[in-house]
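WARN no homologs supplied; continuing
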Amino acid sequence: MTRARIRDLGITIGHLPPGPYNAITDVPGVWVGHHTLIYDEPNVARTGVTVIIPREGAIWTDNVFAAFHSFNGNGEMTGSHSLSEFGFLAEPIAITNTHQVGIVRDALIAYMVENNLGGDWFLPTVAETYDGYLNDINAFHLDKTHVYQALEAATGGPVAEGNVGGGTGMICHQFKGGIGTASRLVDSESGRYTVGVLVQANYGTRPQLRVDGVPVGRELGDDHTPLPGKETRDGSIIVVIATDAPLIPIQCKRLAQRATVGLARVGGVGHNGSGDIFLAFATGNHLPPGATTLIELKMVPHHHLNPFFEGVAEAVEEAILNALTAAETMTGYEGRTVYALPLDDLQRVVAKYR
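OK structure emitted
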């Protein structure tokens, strides 16, 4: 079967409606760009970088409130101390592999300096998951030009999923994983807003995988689809949440914490070796850097947030499943192969439990 999104398979997650693209780009002004590296010479590359740019690229002159949550901290996200201190983002977000966080961070700064974007100093947010099972991670394939290409490719609309960008070499529940995205329209007492999610899914064991509550991983055991090596069991996941609601930093943190619910529904438990780091940003307030007068802000009351929490949980769950259903079988470093989740069998198992 041709790879598909989870809804295309007749499996609907949750009850809230998705946005037009069912992607993080349903949040107005949010762009996504990928750059993917797949080649075998001189070293095996199965890697890349994904960027998320709020405000159609105006993030440098119109910052956004943001916060993060570390469910299990065996991972890296640069800029987190500044984010904790000030509660806003002033640059794009990037996701890549574990050993290239530094070059991606430096490239973001170089891009901003060369294009005269923003102020005199930058602390960009770059997160990672480990792709060293399929990618020769110590060959350091990414360079500055690849990050620039991802930035320049960033746009709204449909988002490529699976084996793309930072998700190229990733593994999820011991099937092929990668990039996934989803969105929800939430109706609160403060009005209708959009919640969008993008994940880089690289975590989990086969038996724990659940699809809309169905124990698919137990049904499709290692005798059905061969398992990759044992070192793929812990892994990590990065979740980026966006909304157009006027939320303040503590409310962004509350949204980021709810990503844990969506992850748990699919079968993530935060293993000891997993880097499970979630970031949320909100574009509903405008934060001009260097303001010299009072900034007027709006805020959704805390007691209006329940629909947002539900939207985050549903969108994270669906984004992870979209990563699994979009990703294709891949052979990489040292001839290792990670198999895609078989979609025909997925439908069969879900139908059995229905």
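The first strand starts at residue 31 and ends at 39.
OK
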